[in-house]
Amino acid sequence: MPPWLIGRDALLSELDRVWSRGASQRRLVVLNGMGGVGKTALALTWLHRRSQTFSQTNLYVDLNGSRLVHPADPGEVLRGFLIALGVSSADMPADVSQRAALFRTATADHRVAVLLDDVASAAQVLPLLPAGPDSMTIVTCQWPRNTPRRRPDKAPQMATGFPVDGQISPR
Ligand SMILES: Nc1ncnc2c1ncn2[C@@H]1O[C@H](COP(=O)(O)OP(=O)(O)OP(=O)(O)O)[C@@H](O)[C@H]1O
Ligand SMILES: [Mg+2]
User: Fold this and answer.
1) Can you give the pTM of this predicted structure?
2) Phi/psi of residue 130, nearest 5 degrees
3) Which end of the chain is more exposed for a tag (fewer CB within 10 A), N or C?
4) Which residue out of 5, 138, 145 has the highest number of ligand 1 atoms within 8 Å of its CB and is therefore the one to mutate?
5) 144 CA distance to ligand 1 centroid (A)?
6) CATH architecture, domain 10-16+25-159
7) Ligand 1 centroid to residue 96 C-alpha, Å
8) Which stretches does DSSP call E strand in the chain?
9) Strand order in the sheet with 28-33
10) Residue-wise pLDDT tens digits, 46-62
11) From start to end of 84-135, where are the E strands?
12) Where along the chain do its domains lie?
C-alpha cells in the first residue's frame, strides 16, 4: 500500500458514502479495472483509514481471479474466514454450503469488513458475503484481463450493485 494515494479522494469519499448510507441496504462495492489501476490499493487504504470502525474483524482474501493459477476455492476461503472468526478445526463443517451457512451465522451480529480481492466470477463471491447488516464488503475484479501493470493514468470503476447471477464484469 502506498503511503498516500494520488487522485483517489473522490473514490475514497464514495466508499465513505456507501458505508454511511445505513444498514438497510447491503454495503457492497465492486471495484473494476485493468491490472495495476489501483483497485487493491484503494480498498486497503480505505480499510486502513477505517481500522477503528472495523476493529472487531477484517477479513481479506486474494481469490486469484486474474492469475495463471486456479482461482481460490470458496470452501478453503471459508475455512480461513471461520478460523479467523474463532471456529475451531474440530467444529469446521466438511461441506462448502454448511461452511457458508456457519459464516453467515458467525457474521450476523458482527461489524465485519470483507475484502474479496481479484475475484473471477459472481459465483465465487456469493458464499463469501457476510450476513450482518453492519458489515462492509469490497470486491475487486480485474477487467480487462492481462493488461499491463501500473496504470496510474487510469482509475478503478466503482459499482455499488451486485449481479447475483452471471459474471461481475462483461467478458
Ligand atoms: N492512486 C495511487 N497513487 C499512488 N500509487 C498507486 C495508486 N493506485 C495504485 N498505486 C500503486 O500502483 C501499484 C498497482 O496498484 P494495485 O496493486 O492496487 O493495482 P490493482 O488494480 O489491484 O492491480 P491487479 O488487477 O493486478 O490486482 C501498487 O504499487 C500501488 O501501490
Ligand atoms: Mg489487485
Assistant:
1) 0.90
2) -70, 155
3) C
4) 5
5) 15
6) 3-Layer(aba) Sandwich (3.40)
7) 32
8) 28-33, 57-62, 112-117, 136-142, 157-159
9) 57-62, 112-117, 136-142, 28-33, 157-159
10) 999 999 988 778 999 99
11) 112-117
12) 10-16+25-159
